[in-house]
Amino acid sequence: MILLIDWHVKAINNPMDFTEGDGEAINFVDDSMAGFREQGGDSLTGQRRYGMTSLMEKLNIVSPAYRSNKMSWILLSNAIALAHEGCCFENESHTPSTPTSESEAIRQEWSRLVCVFIYLADESLATRLGLEPLLPEKSRQVVKDQFSTTFADSLSDSTLWEGYLELAVETRKGREFLHSLKKTGTSLSSLNLVPTLEHLRRSLSRWKRQYHHHYDSNTFLSACLDMEFHYVTMYCFAPAAQALPSSSRTAASALSEFSDQAAQASYSLLAVIVDVLEPGKLIAYLPVRCWLFIVAASLHLLKATIAKEQHISLSNPNIHLLRSVIDAIRQGSPDDSHMAMRFSKFLGIILQASLPPPRSAVPEGAQQGPEINGVASQGETVPEGPYASMFGDVGIWDIPVNLDVVSDPFTWWDSFSGRNGFARFP
């Protein structure tokens, strides 16, 4: 069950005609339109959000994501229930002097592993879905107090697994921080985020010194751990970018630094895809949670780039990396039904809509301008390289007419946060 939480790609691609309950997955389309109708003064923002939602619906991203989340939550709850029925979380009452049979030692070792991996799955899924963990606090304490120091002894790459467990602790701190921001109900500008962000930075720096790149085996597992670390860094520091525009002068410098770190973390995460996973042909084996990392990091890096540059250059290193990632996940997809295909097209559309169109022959009398399906301004050329063919033809992306991300780098991003956002997508 724990494995199926992260490797159930085929199970979430069933045709909608053969699934039930998917109506809940698309209710937020009506919610978005309701908000659009109610806020007449903000109609342009409503159109952008609805355009983004329609795009995700068209690419069949929303319903599979809903099925993935629902299935994962059910699997986790069943795994926790079975573990408790099997007494896996019971305190080990034997002392070192108490003789233990070989079969009992094996049972205890297995129980430790089951409990720790349930704990890891619970923390990961709670972060992915933006929900509270399912595991009871008493069971969590058993894992932290008794099993966390010994579980990796029976595993190969023990340092990597210890790093995973410690990173889950840091992730929980970041998740609780973001949940606290939601509960306050106040704007970020009225909150002093810097002390908490500083605390999170120290914790993540400590983890990085102890575990990051302190291994030389199991490239796939270490790459997944790298991605998780960079995602947690981006996840924790991303609120700084939203608080920055309305922050005070005293806090602006620190918030700007955290915002830059979040952008750099998104860049580093995506670099793992291009530099490690793609050359090793490992993208097809990524667990579900890593697709959240890829999509979220791509959107965050694009947003950060747009926010800093009014006119994005096609030669921008961030844009080049995004192109490389989109091509890598498309080429690395094991088949046409894999969600990598939908995500690559979705990211390709968003990126293409954010860029100046490629220069082409301009018919006499045609107007030049930055329109999405228009003609690029003079001087812009399609960059050469292995990804030029993918992005040279605007028509292949089928960009919706009501999708506009160029004119406002902030409002379109809001549709990916909260209840309906990519925080809940696999």
The largest sheet is:
none
Using only C-alpha atoms, the radius of gyration works out to 23 Å
End-to-end CA span: 17 Å
Mean pLDDT across all amino acids: 76
Parts with pLDDT < 50 across at least 5 consecutive residues: 22-41, 361-389, 392-397, 404-426
Order of helices and strands: HHHHHHHHHHHHHH
Count of the domains: 1
Measured as a percent range, the helix fraction is 55-70%
Structural class: mainly alpha
| Strand residue percentage | under 5%
Q: Looking at the structure, what is the overall shape?
A: globular
Name the features.
DNA-binding transcription factor activity, RNA polymerase II-specific, mainly alpha, AAA_Catabolism_Regulators, Transcription factor domain-containing protein, 59% helix, disordered C terminus, 426 residues, 14 helices
How does this structure look, described?
The protein is 59% helix and 0% strand. It has helices spanning 2-6, 27-38, 43-58, 62-85, 102-129, 137-147, 158-184, 194-211, 219-243, 249-277, 288-308, 317-331, 339-354, 388-392. It has 14 helices and no strands. Helix 2 (27-38) packs antiparallel against helix 3 (43-58). The protein is globular. The two termini are 17 Å apart. The chain is an all-alpha fold. It has one domain (2-11, 43-91, 105-359, 370-424).
